[in-house]
Fold each of these.
Amino acid sequence: MPQRIGVYICECGPNIKDAVDMDNLLEDAREHKDVVLVRSFGFLCSPDGKEFLKKDIQAHKLSRVVIAGCSPKENEQTFRDVLKNAGLNPFLLQIANIREQCAWVIQEKSDATEKAGELIRGAINRVRLHEPLEIKTIECCADVLVVGAGVAGISTALAVARKNRKVYLIEKEPCIGGRVAGHEDLYPDMVCASCLIESQLDAILHHNDIEVLTLTEMVEVRGYLGNFMVNVRQKARFVDMEACIGCGACFEVCPVTVPMPFMGGMAGRKAIYIPYSGALPNVALIDGENCLRFQGELCHFCLESCPFGAIRYEETERVRVLKVGAVVVATGFGSFDPQKDVRYGYGKAENIITSLEFEQLVNSNGPTEGKILLTNGRPPRNIAFVHCVGSRTEKFNDYCSGVCCLYTLKHAHQARLQLPEAGICQFHSDLCLPGKDAQRFYRKVLKEDGIEFFRMLRPDTIEIRKGTGSILITHTDTQGELERNEFDMVVLATAMESGVETEGIAGILDVKLGENGFFQEADAGLDPVSTVREGIFMAGCAQGPKDIPSSVAQGHAAAGRIMGKLAPGEPLALEPMVCEIDPEICSGCLVCISLCAFKAIALEDDEPEVSINQAMCRGCGVCAAACPSGAISAGHFSTGAIFSELRGLMG
Amino acid sequence: MHGFEPKIILFLCNWCSYEGADAAGRGGKEFPSRNLREIRVMCSGRVDPRFVLEAFRIGADGVLILGCAPGDCHYKTGNIEALKRIPLLERILQQNGIKNDRIRFDFVSAGDGEKFARVTGEMVKLLKRLGPFDHA
Amino acid sequence: MPDKPKIALYWCSSCGGCEESVIDLSEGLLELAERADIVFWPVALDSRLKDLEALDDGEIDLSLINGAIRLREQARMAQLLRRKSKVIFAHGTCAHLGGIVGLGNFHTVQEILERSFRDVPTVRNLGGILPGGSVEGSERGPKLSPLIDKVMALDQVIDVDCFIPGCPPPPELVGKAVWSVLEGKLPEKGFVFGDGKALCHTCPLLESKPEIIRVKRFKRVHETDWDPGKCFLPQGIICLGPATRGGCGSRCIQANMPCRGCFGPLETMEDHGAGMLSFIASMIDADHEDEIRRITASIPDPGGLFYRYSLPHSILGGGKGTET
């Protein structure tokens, strides 16, 4: 069927009109096949221009439109809307850029006219082959899965949950609250950590629209934004969560004590236990590996002692499929293992501990009930805090963890409060004190606590060894001189690293990790809480080392991104310019599958041909360029259309 | 060769190099626009080798494909897929009697009008030196 | 007795393999000879040009022409047969796409003659005599037909009805093509016998082809050990099956050799090499230019590999060889 192509040359005021021979262009355009009218106009993008265009399309029953004017990056959408308003499919438009790529940059009028004429000819050729694309929509699920119930995950869940947007919050540990729940006080104002987070944890556990699944991990993630199917596995707790109130009757009678490796076996727990005093949910669980019954013995002391009949030996692991629209990974961080570098002496001498272990020491719910003690049970006479253990060095982690200087100051302060006479020292090479409150906190600690600061030449110019009855620290000072000091206790501020499970989780989610092992952002500058896979976000230390307010901020940010993309009840518009495979030609060679960065192409079960998931296809056309059979057509950028444009340009 | 004005078919990707070209145009950068004929694609990875071969067949003196910088591709790896094809295309052109300098692939970011001007300028200069070749 | 349909067979620039494929019809050939009259077949019968010229226009029901058009005489014969035949099938890859003969288009005629007759180490040609020129006594003898500038496929010289691909075509396919005419079931103009899909579709090794293939170095069969029970591509050996029309019964694959592309490209691909280039490039396991170049360099002759059978029908056709 013959086309009725209308060609409009925008004068753009004097911008284009004065730079080219308009009459020549108008005349030339009329010569082309299927062109029924050619017109020029002062400013096509003006309200008058758009109205004129709309009326013209209707009056002349145009089937295709070419606009020669400014860059399509400026006004393509504007003119597509005009076509739509005129009753013509918005994709039956081709724009020739004769301003930024012609009138504005070519001095000689004849040269500019020649190029403009060829660009217009190319556009006319191309527009003939455009198809009237439809914008398809799919129903989407607005529910959210948050992986990790630390402070970031909790912030996300609370921000995003509402009546028609359910949140599943899964956590691999038996209790929620992550690291923060295990802290005592937080810098800079020394607020009680558990007090801070308790209200949030209660809100989470009692929220109508949040379902918390502890002892649960992801197994498989399939699908795409608006339409994810996530398989999760929940380990057996062996205790009924509705019935148990955490009274502790069961652990009193349990005959098995499991030693916890903490400072030479200071701590221990029973085989049926609650991880720490105040843990939420306040429900016990059985450690199947140490429980006598699970080793085959006939023990049932806990069952007998429970006043609520909450023990469930027969419970099994459950697998569930969660249908969600978005996933937020908030799986937190891991810590550098100082045993990796013998210079720190960790594991070689007693009383060399990490800052996380120190945090447990000062925790009133911890193994020493908050008292700072050596392995021999006595308080230390002096303590050294060492900064940058595993940080800022190419050998291990080539970055600053950003929080250790501040929490080390906090630890020094806590030590001073408990041990007014002790010698307290800090070994550092620099001090990282960002933010509004850090400097003030540092000055307070410096002034009030009498802490001695030893400045090292570099983060790694320090050696810690066992001495006779003490620990020897040798460091190189900023003058390059060696200095030796002795301490009863040494606390190592270890680098914040990506957690050990991060790689596995990235594999399940099919998202990339960055160079340092943390999840890779879609755009580190402008989209820091999105992973490279659409619909999967991140928050907190899973993205990189950060403090608590920043983790909360990212949790809120991820919630914001989700709320912007998935509105409950609103269908999701799909990319209209997608690729399509002709099953008559497809040989099942699978070349396209390896090329699709969005995993939009798959072999259908039992079919020998592949098919493209139109909801996941982004229309890049890489597959169309590579298909060795030519079986794939790229919507709006078909091979035929581009050939046609090319031939029009060359003449 | 005196008076010879080469014609280059220029493939630009919608997200980066097309913006870079427009940045050069808006910023009044000096570049040989009269020698360039632009074709916009969504991704440099869309450039089918057939387009390149046909361009030379019907009279182009050079083909320039500009994509996003590595790591910036809107479609993650499309620019690398485009890059992977280039050495083979160069060999095919060479064996077909076309100097492989006539095809070039480069990265131009969205705001980089400067690089766009430089790359296009270099290519036109090189092609002027090579002169036209005997098309079909 | 009603007249039997008339068939002619002719060879242009050919190795004789297509003729062999007709012989390989075996008993089928006897059946054919019974069913039809083979009026012209220089290879097998005592056929004369004057007998052909004596036929009426369109008297031949089907002519199978194999071989590429390299000499002017071959072009003339093709035109003659076109006049005398109702239906012409391009028989075999040389007639279909130009074939191996077509590789000559990477060079000029002069280069080819000089290389073959003067520069090859095994030739002793002290006078530097090239065929076609004037030599003592040449006025008396038959004149050698001059070489055309560029090798052409049959349909670049005459109108062709259908194509039988293959180097050579499997005998079954030749039989199928011929019988389609004899039974009055001629396919539409331009039809290419064989499958409508690439070879992978029917390849016995398809199941072992993984979704992601990454290669650090391309290897040729003499450079490596490989598992013949598994797809060639992940093992680094280039097989052109993904880009090549199927219908050959994967006989090369079953003989433990990778597909070389003799059935030509699929309908939608104007250039067989272009179809191969992108999929082979996609297998390169690198994302930096230097490494990509290094891996590409492990393919010694991309032009020959990609256009072994189809150079005259490729977009650039071999070029004019003026610049390089």
Note: Chain C is about 30% helix and 10% strand.
Amino acid sequence: MKKALYKTAFWLIVFVAGTGKAVADTTFIRLATTTSTDNSGLLDILLPAFEKHNEYTVKVISVGTGKALRLLREGDVDVVLVHARSAEDKLVDDGYGVNRRDVMYNDFVLVGPDSDPANIRGTTDATSALSRLVASNSLFISRGDTSGTHNKELQLWEQAGITPQGHWYREAGQGMGKVLQIAGELDAYTLTDRGTWLAYRNKAPLVIVTEGDEHLFNPYGIIAANPARYPDVNYSGAMALINWITSPAAQNMIGNFTIDKQRLFVPMHDLVQPDGNQ
Amino acid sequence: MTQLLDTSRQALVLLFTGDPALWSIVSISFSVSLRAVLIATPVALLLAFLLAHARFPGRRVLISTFNTLLALPAVVVGLTIYMLLSRSGPFGDLKLLFTQTGMVIGQIVLCFPLLVAFSHATLQAADQRAWETAVTLGAKPWQAMLTLMYEVRYGLIAAVTAAFGRIIAEVGSSMMIGGNILNYTRNITTAIALETSKGEFAQGIALGIILLLSALLLNFALTFMQARDGTAR
């Protein structure tokens, strides 16, 4: 009796696990994306519209850019939507990703305590703001997690000719929301993407000090996993999503997406494309 | 499978080439958890002794409470203490958030129930004659208490080892309260969480190996002490 029960349970598990896998191969798309796109709520608008017009269901895995790219590299996801241009290009050059397309961009802002000890509030030049921040010996909290935002921050330090090191520079190694909390608690400055800032600004005693520098622009790209390398990825699903997200309909939705009446992302559609690709 | 092997091999290389950031992480882990255990143990032992050998109203409720708190999730402890220490919280003026002292407080809260529950069980089972003999020989109550604790020292050491094991391996409260800041509050477990989120699995495995090796060394040391003690008698 007991044996029969175990047997039934065993076959039941095999059956359920088996069907789950079969379904996953054809109609599910595994999308790895950065926490900034997911937290902003943009995907909650875009993906249901995509799913309505296609037979696919998108499973979103929301992680840091580094992890997202790693997932694509290992063939664990079908498509990634991230913002780290040089790392994206490397992934494509190494043959792990194919058909990279520009999707949209948003921008970064420097935020800091209301008291503004570095006296940089209202400036528009990111590198000089950072230099003055360091000269005033103010605290700076870095993401320190090789995310897209962290990469951008390191680029800015390089442009400013500063080696970010010392007592004033703290590497938090956590997500953007948490880093904003830490900066708020310690009266420190930090670099954040505008989306997360809009979502968290009421919870942190910080203000925008520097914005509008073109060095602070942040392009997002979408890349499919290479089916030649990983035959079991859902390539047709990934391409359906890529084609749709770069289509005029989706690009308009991105352009119309706002938080508190503030536009968060500028679709690539709105930019003049010098090389003609879209 | 090859990925797992590759990762482990890279991990070993990292361990033996050893960089300063790695050792800062390891030392923060040990200094925080050792401080927490050292502070929590005397108080917990005293409380466990009272629960085992004194009779007072609410004793059973207290025992059940501490047994229940064994299931306390580390993130809940982290969140609660975070809110208490935040600048908008009641103890914000102490500026303890994102410091090692804050992490020590969180780990004390985490290991205290475990210390009390395990030591209580050990002391409860202790031979009462040790206490009675000590009292008959004219020992003061606190001396008799120490005699009793000495009789069951291995059980108590096991309780302390388990408590240390719990807090050196926890990630939730250290991440919430400490903030994972390099050279200040980044310990082994929060570093593993970070490396995983970066996709740097080899670093994560390397840190995991260090954690396990240190736990192994600690336990060997304790076993060795017990064995030597046993032959001396």
Note: Residues 2-27 of chain A form the longest helix (26 residues).
Amino acid sequence: MNGWSGNLLRINLSTKSAKKESFTEEFAKTWIGGRGFAIKILWDELKPGIDALNPENKLVIALGPIAGIPAPNTGKTVVAAKSPLTGGYGDGNLGTRVTVELRKAGYDAMIIEGKADSPTYLNIVNDKVEILPANEIWGKGTYDTMDWLYKKYGKAAGILTIGQGGENKVLYAVIRSMEGRSGGRPGIGAVMGSKNLKAIVVKGTKDIPMANPAGMKELGAEDLKKVGAIDKKTGWSIQGTTGVLSWCNEVAALPVRNMRKTSHPDAWKIDGERLNNARVATYGCPNCTMRCGIAIHDHEGRESELDYENIGMLGSNLEIFDLPQVASLNYLCDDYGLDTISAGGVLGFYADAVDRGSIEGDFKFGDAERAKELLRMTAYREGVGDFLAGGTMRMAQKIGRNSMDYAMQVKGLEISAYNCKFIPGMALAFATSPIGAHHKESWVIMFEITQTSRESYGREKAQKVIELQRIRGGMFEFIVACRFPWIELGWDLQHYADYFNKITGMNWTLDDFFKVSDRIYALMKFFWVREFPNWDRTRDYPPKAWFDPSNADKEGPIAGKILEWDKFEKLLDSFYEIRGWDKRGIPTKKTALGLGLAEEAAQVEKYSKLE
Amino acid sequence: MKIKVKMIGHFIYEAGFSEKELELEKPITASQLLSFINIQEQRPKIIIRNGRAIALDEELEDGDRIAISPIYSGG
């Protein structure tokens, strides 16, 4: 099989065994890789209803057929499991040398099962798998852990690790790699920690099976140069992802004060221009020529790699407009291995609840020093940290008093840095993201503001959300590559199809990829339905705060405007209709069969009747 | 008339400034503003007037806040 080794590595930490297993060509061509492999494996192998922090959960690390091969932005890997934060399907995607090394070691995926009886790490070199004691690194932050492992295995090793956050099973603990890369927002790091697994080290020396290796080598190298040249010409990476902060501030979409507000006069202090001026280093993923990791010195003088989500959620959302302090909060999240988006959402919600008198506490918006202490307490589940470690949905459940209205999350996952109190299409995107609120699947704000109208709840918005989900949450998540050359620099989507075809020897069109996307989205939904058999559309609703007229901006471009419930319901209906899902948001039998999911549909029917 | 102009992203480096107040003798359109501050029209951009996206031929008014930004796509 070209493009796939056909092998996955199954490691059972309870029995201390490692096994190379093969998968069929049919499996490969149906699910492709990355998120596709992850959802199919988890669907097939997990017993419904398990506790996600139980040894029965499985950690899936999945590459795609173009992953690791030198070409624009192929250095990313998907990590997935049943999420302890949401109880549904959870995954993440991070840049890591593990992508390259795992491919060269001869695997397309890893499945990690069971639980080690004491802290453990894995060292994988081609066919050899060592399950080793991690007592020297357990308890360390991700930076010290990586240093220890680099000293032992060399700086070229691929490493995935968790920090104290994952060890202590903070529900939004992530997996970390390299300088500032992280992924697995819905607690995939906590799943790793629940297995007593501290780190995975990989090195590989085999050739990656390709249909046209010489052709691909030339094309990949040439295209990496071309993308780099476009970046240089447009100047994108001067501010990278952080340029959008100023834009959000202008159009009233910035998360400020637990998304109570949409802009702030001090936002400029933490914007992309300030960040670039303070730059001391630039980092990126393997196989990238437009590196977006802008590192600055934080308040304590440490190097902290920042992107937009970090400054949006740990900065403006907390009304902290001191850039070095925002960098410190980001550093702490990275070291503890906590998702910065959820950490910012949690701290913002906490400050808001205290401010409203719904809960006793001593955290105010703008208090960077207290925020640092709270992050430490969260990572160690100490005192109020144990409460914060549960995420905003659980916090609101405990607080009561209608606090769920302003817990800015969907399905339990905190909303990322776009305040959609008057952006209907983006609110829909957050509502229908398959892992809980995340912008990565679909980002439609520019479309809403320039191509249609901001106040529209028209079908065109649902159409656009789905179009983007097919590409961003679908294609890029299963061939596995970073979408930035395409989405930020206009690198034609067709290039990715070309890489796929050159590597696999197949002849796929973009429509072929989109069909796989739809299949994956339907199965991810079935996974949720199987876990929550009384599934209905209410789990696809954005937080009530975005519909509350008293929460509308008092001044500015959207003064007095807020989302309208009846109109949103119709927009959600449009979304379901276009996808061929019923009014509960569940794929119909007809849709499932059309996507080749007959078996899966029969299974899910035991839990919820399909229409 | 007086307007505030804010440059966002790479346009800061193209225009040579981040934010400034302009005093103009007579009303201008968005398109004319671009020429005035030496921004090439060909580069894809979005022009925001008081928080709303506008077309090139829209006339600006005294007290406006204009931002010129790349066409972001949410990363």
Note: Chain A has three domains: 7-203, 238-419, 420-611.
Amino acid sequence: MDVNLAPLLPAIQVLVTALVVVGRDLFIDEDEPKGVLAFYSLVGLGLAAAEVAVLLTGRQESAFGDSIVLDNFALFFTLIFLLAAALTILSSIHYVRQTRIHEGEFYALILFATVGMIVMAAANDLMVFFLALETMSIAVYVLTGMWRASGRASEASMKYFLMGAFATGFLLYGIALIYGATGSTNLNQIAAYLLDQPSEWPLYLIGGGFLLLIGFAFKVGAVPFHFWVPDVYDGAPTPVTGFMSVAVKAAAFAAWARILLYKFSPFESDWAFPLWIITIATMTLGNLLAITQTSVKRMLAYSSIAHAGYLLIPIVVGVEWGGMALLFYLLTYSFMTLGAFAVLTSLSEEDEPRESYSDFAGLGFKRPFLALAMSLFMLSLAGFPPLAGFTGKFYVFRSAVLAGYLNLAIIGVLNSLLSVIYYLRVIVAMYMEEGGAEGKSIRQAPFVYLAVTIAVIGTVYLGILPGSALNWSRLAFFSLE
Amino acid sequence: MTATGFGDLTLLLAIPVLGAALLLFLPRRWSAALFSLALCASAGDFFWSLRIFNLFDAGNGDMQFVERVAWMPNFGIQYILGIDGISLFLVLLTTLLMPLAILASWPVKDRVKEYLIFMLLLETGMLGAFVALDLFLFYVFWEVMLVPMYFLIGVWGGARRIYAALKFVIYTMAGSLLMLVAIIYLATRHAQLTQVFTFDLLELYGLTLPFDQQSWLFLAFALSFAIKVPLFPFHTWLPDAHVEAPTAGSVILAGVLLKLGTYGFLRFAIPLFPDAAQAALPSLIALAVIGIVYGAVVAMMQSDIKKLVAYSSVSHLGFVMLGLCSLNLQGVQGAIYQMLNHGLSTGALFLLVGMLYDRRHTRMIDDFGGLWQQIPVFSSMLLFVTFASIGLPGLNGFVGEFLILLGAFAVAPGWTAVAATGVILGAIYMLWMFRRVIFGPLSNPENQRLTDLSGRELTILAPIVLLILYMGVFPQPFLSRMQPAVELTLKRILTVPPALPAPSAAEENLSGEQPDDGR
């Protein structure tokens, strides 16, 4: 057993921060302001990001019997998780006070979930992956239900837990079958087995692969395993929804990319067709159902299903062309989605959530900055240049064309067209309709503005000057070995 | 060509953006200052484009003022700008119309700041699309244009503005997204054949693909441009967008935005896929001619002046497409000339309709009549522009239509004969509208209180009117600058150029002293 803590350094940093937050929380009275906990969390996340920057030298290390690796791929995703956690905490500072969610536990759970995600992206062993997944999932189940006054949140939490447990069953059973066939849970050994005996795979090995596939499809909310997504996203506290739709999804895709796309690439031809169908169904159904929604939050939930569909394109496309596009798209998607949820969070009031289109009416001239930011996020999600969403989609479609999946590119752009309808409806409400809610509390929430500003900068920067992020995505994916 | 860094054209694109950025920091209650700043930015851009015009080498058909900067170097995406005789005048048209449109927006009282910001961003988008020589960059500008226009229609438009704005965006995007896939596919094919991944238009010109691939790619490009032109039957977004848009929006939409469609055919769709384009020419010609006649007939039926002008655009742009599809020097030159003419005369028509609307808040033909007695200056302006629009000899429209018909006759005499009836129909609907609005008894008491054009309004119209006259009498300075670029483009398309009648003979006859040809 080789003990090398370097690969785990960011995870340990976040874990320690979470414990500090929990500990410090004990010494603050129930009625006192607890903003300091958010501050601790942000500092911890910042330190973790700094450690990532130090580790980001292209070194390849593994530890604990090759079950955890340090590579640019893991670090790339770690940064996405840290970013998502930081923006989520920034936009919830005011929200948790409003909804009387217990602050200490809330921040700590976000940090615990982040630890799970970081380990997930670095896991090189199916068992470690599974443990990390559970660490993340259980924290997020609780986060979903943390707004105890809300019946919807409790329902969502229960639903999420049941569905998540169900998906976990698939994953675990898949892992067991793969272990049975290959004699190992270590990804390198499994990959070596797959390469060595391409013709003698037992049927249950392929079955195990497909069970893993189904488990992942559950986790990212791909059709037909998406039924939990709208209710859970809708019921969860808004910042948590943003966190789920970015960080949890990114973590699932990180594991998917490392395990299925990369290590199991000999399987590619076996699941290309079913995955192709899943991808098309996910994009199309997500977009069609998003059009019919009357709540912006629910619309964003369906739109996140649609985006899971776009993210599946590079996975269908395969390891040669898809990897970079997948990573880059996740990066762009993180900024614009977190931004959109931050704006949505900032609208909420003590007793009413303010999530429908009509609540956005007239926002363009009442809250010019928030409305401008929201417009940018919507245009970016719809794929208008020169914003991040466009460059992200461009590289996704490019990967499809390069690999010969012209049909996926065409269906993808037609889906973008569908999505324009509902994203623009938010802009219609903000700028072209009168009335709507008069916000009082928005002024008191400077941190939301900070989160929104960061997201705007990311969305615009990745749209206009994506060069370095693209190269970085490419290096990150090709650091897999 | 190697990297050259940013230059004159970048500044041309940057001036409006800088103006918009400055506007962002001005308080919204200083509306006069906001207007002045926007006007300065757009006028400054116009003067900058005049400088480019002065430095432009008239005898050179290649791209000039080329700028080349690596943008995403590992992915073959560059920032390439350049201008030639085809885009030069379209750029000038854009920079000329924009300050006029801003000046015409003075009556806008509502949310002035955002309005002006969107106008300036729109200008950059349009100019960028005209001068971009990298397909990725072109696509970016092509889409960037949509957003400000969407807002201009949706926020400052008429009663059905939201519907019209959404329809505009959805139609345009439906075409352009497929073009995006085509662009990626084209670059991919280029990479597979030459090992160079690039979106550089001039390099992609050199690629010869098999016919079936060309056909699909051409179809994707052509659909996108045909919607923008708009070519029959993709025109249904246009009347909605025009009628609902604010005056300046209509001016820019008709004056410049539609030209991007025809420009796209000439710059991208046809030269990139010459074989497929030539196979598609008969159908394009047919659609163009159907559009000419259909647009004219529908325009005749309209009771709303603005809608009438909108449908007349469908008809006029049909002429432009007809000229482009002739693929000979006269036809293509005539088409470009007609793009400019249409920009000026239809722009002026929309301005005049807007001025009338500002006074009476109606655009219905039946509400007017006898205006000549009350507002003679307005009426004479309308008369002049109407004449330009129907192609009266001595004014610019005649030169363009004549060249187009001349060029098209060599290719498709039958269709050209049908198209020529569109000229007559055009005269009918325009003059009929003019008669009903301007002549007759001044019966409506509300019309008796109308005031004539103000100094501001005359300032807006004067440059357009003068140019209409100048371009009608002296087409040569324009045509001679287009000629080398058009010849080069045609050479790219037709590897063996067909024998053409001597171009100079045809042009010398066009200086305005034409005998009566039946109109």
Note: The longest helix of chain A spans residues 151-182.
